[in-house]
Structure prediction request, 172 residues.
Amino acid sequence: MGEKAKEPNVAEFVSALAAGNNAQLMVVACAGAANSTALALPVAAHQTGGHVVCILPGIQQLQQYRKILGYDSCHVEFVVGEAQNLVLSQYAEADFVLIDCNLENHEGILRAVEAGRKRNGAVVVGYNAFSEGLWRSSGSKKSIAAYRRRATSHQNRSKSFGEDKSVGCKGG
Prediction:
């Protein structure tokens, strides 16, 4: 009884969440170099038969991701551009969206997902909320708390109405 149960790491959680919801179009908006959280989606896509789109801010990050993924990079569609506009215009039908909270406009990306919401809802997960980059870009803990409250209110709404399922930004 004295032994703690082992909790899954964030990447395992994200992969299981996407696969458990049978996500078919998974979009990840990344701020920088590849990390295990973002790399979890190709695993989920393999299980669901889904498709992964990775939106990156620049060519340098694209090269890094392809190098890290190696052969598995052929299972990911890479797009370089501004995530908020792309989510709203080209990937509005995504049923799983993973947002790197190190992106300066991570809240704008969340609003874009809400605006382009799928008929049956979407799972939205934020990660890296407590990294230094977010504190610099947002200026205060208050903005994170507000973001987390909005995410929680969306999560509560999903339980009531079967719409979007949202998970607030958690460290990755």
